Amino acid sequence: MEIINEILKWPVIVQGALGSALFWILIEGGQRVVLSTSRRLSGDKKTAMWFSLAASVYDNYELEVKCRQIAIYGGLHYFIKAMILIVISLLVSPLLHVVSMVGYLVAIYYLFRALSYIPHTSRFGTNDQKKELFDRLTNHALENANKKSQSDA
Hints:
Layout: H1 2-9, H2 12-57, H3 61-92, H4 97-116, H5 127-152
């Protein structure tokens, strides 16, 4: 509290500059967090889509089942996180109602993330469209792997 009182003693122009600097730091940090999160989420979505497409494109039943299991396993950890948050929120709700509401909202986010790992294959279109999209995703993944291996070398 002493630091706030000291800052209030400074000239208004300095207080404004300090406030602007703090606002700029928050904006920059927020943009970096959003950018890194969106990169990660888009990569996860492509992986989930690839396994779902592989399950619907391949004629081999055993391979189809394994691809679907991998897609379900990918969403399972988000589902478990959501269940843990719901239980914690239920336990905390008599004490801190606001914290429990935030927990429920985050749990809903995790449930939607889990659901995104298992996209419905009818949204991919006909079998030809599925195969075309599957080939594009496979080529994209191979190009990214090649770029990564060349940059590591």
